[in-house]
Amino acid sequence: MPATVPDSAAPQAAPPAESVGPLERGLALLRTMALDPAPRQRPSDLARTTGFARSTVDRITTTLVRLGYLRSDGRDLVLAPRAAEFGNAYLAGSRLPELLGPLAVELADRLDESVSIAVPDGAGARFVVQATRRRTMAVSFRIGDLLPAERCAPGALFAAEWDSGQRTSWLRHHGDPAEAGFAVAPSRMAEPDEFLERARLSRVQGWSVDDQLIETGLVAVAVPVRDPSGSAVCAVSVVSHTSRHDARSLADHALPQLRHTAREMERRLADPTAVTTTPSGVSSSRAFKDELGSGFLQSLARGLDVLLALGAAPGHHTLAAVARATGLPRATARRALITLQCLGYVGTEGEGFRLLPRVLELGYTRLAGLSLPEIAEPHLIDLVRTVHESASMAVLDGPDIRYIARVPTSRIMRLDITVGTRLPAFATSMGRVLLGAVPEAELLELLTDMRRDQHTDVTVTDPVALAATIRSAAREGHAMVDQELEEGLRSIAVPLHGGHGEVLAAVNIALHAGRGTPAETRTGLLPALRETAAAIAADLSLARRWTGAPPA
Questions:
Q1: Crossing angle, helix 164-175 and helix 192-205, to 10 degrees?
Q2: Are strands 390-397 and 400-407 parallel, antiparallel or unpaired?
Q3: 33-39-42-47 Cα dihedral, nearest 10 degrees
Q4: Core-most of 133, 162, 194, 338, by most CB within 10 Å?
């Protein structure tokens, strides 16, 4: 029996009787946390903001913490990187970053200007791809950010295709900016006729311009990218600053190559050669329910499983396919789909369902902007609590390592090291792990050229011996340095790998050498250290899957 879900992708004024209340409230709480400028929230704050009873907030947050979407830090709650799965599901299912992202990067390189791809989302345009140029005056919009249609170049292109109902909806939001939901750039009053005329003109000429509409000094030119039916799937923009271009000169500079890139994007959308699949894991919500009892909202967990299943492959998904992917009864999957569609996170076409860009508002933008130290710190804290020794993360910086995260232990004797401290790479465990990623043909020359002081009686300074030690550490996947940097100091380190196997950083535990033999240190600390590095890498992969951002 086909699902009877309304055709409109816009949220309805009131939820239907079949809507899943815990799923509605859970998503509302996630959205509240994602859009609040403060990264940390207390349950009492969430109760006031959402209007939910404190007991309801407690059950929702207990469920989301257990599922890994929130993290409890004392009395505070923080979005956990796993919540980026929701945005990743939309981006994977849409295929826009995968198919069009490389073309945006190529265009940015050719023009030496930032390039963005945005999709229509209600009365605004939401970014799904960013290829930015590193400048002092740089574009700061992020993937997932939503801009008012009337204040950005893509918005006029999308508005050119609005029907009367969409224009009426825009006018309602435009007349009440506080309700429009534009966290990045709140809507501001302007003559509606002027914007609608810009939209009409953009359809006639095939491109639109933002001449400092969103921010003083920022100019942009955009063209649509259409599907085979002729509808604008997205818009690709070239963004600059008035110190380099005015609106007219940017159009002259960028439009020919911008149009060429848009045509190539349309070809890729019409005939994609690769198939993206994002496996949807089996939910463990049943086990969590058994563990936590009434404190765990299984219907919320199941609804989130349904949301993620829609990003498992491109295109639309039938109710039967969603039920199979999640292992849920059809009736349960159907109610979750009705709820998600009602909230504006799922759209329909015939009997198929697909994720909508509004899913990105569930924390993706904030999480994708986390730095590597921010992602690592909670895991380092957990490691220190487990092993009761100091833990750190460092990157290679010339001949030195530079600390980028550190959690000290609460012992009377501890190392006086802070973020930013530099130490010689050759004599540290993290340095040897990082040097292990240097190509073998270059390693000996690098060690020979670097300064190698004799810090203690046992410091290895011979470049040939060091190269052999570093290559051995690379094979074994860890390095230990025992009193070579300072008497009484021992440390053990493992690499932090990126998604392509590259070494991004190193994580270590440092301790006094008197607290056991080297063998005891290796046996007692290495498993927990490796587990921590794997957890950091997993969170980094979730947060950075589509951003293309550097890790630090």
A1: 140
A2: antiparallel
A3: -20
A4: 338
Q: 127 pairs with which residues across the strands?
A: 118
Burial level of 491, CB count in 10 A (0-12/13-18/19+)? buried
Q: What is the pLDDT of residues 452-475, one digit of tens each?
A: 999 999 999 999 999 999 999 999
Over its C-alpha atoms, the chain yields an Rg (Å, rounded) of 26
What does the pLDDT look like over 323-372, one tens digit per residue? 999 999 999 999 999 999 999 999 998 889 999 999 999 999 999 989 99
**pTM to 2 decimal places:** 0.86
> How far apart (Å, rounded) are the C-alpha atoms in residues 456 and 207?
68
CB 307 within 8 A of CB 90: no
Instruction: Give the helix/strand (H/E) hosting 445.
Output: helix 440-449
Q: What are phi and psi of 366, to 5 degrees?
A: -65, -45
* Cβ–Cβ under 8 Å, residues 65 and 346: no
Q: Which tokens is 433 given?
A: 């792990």
Backbone angles phi, psi at 123, to 5 degrees: -90, 20
Where do the H-state alpha helices sit in 68-163?
Answer: 84-94, 96-111, 153-159
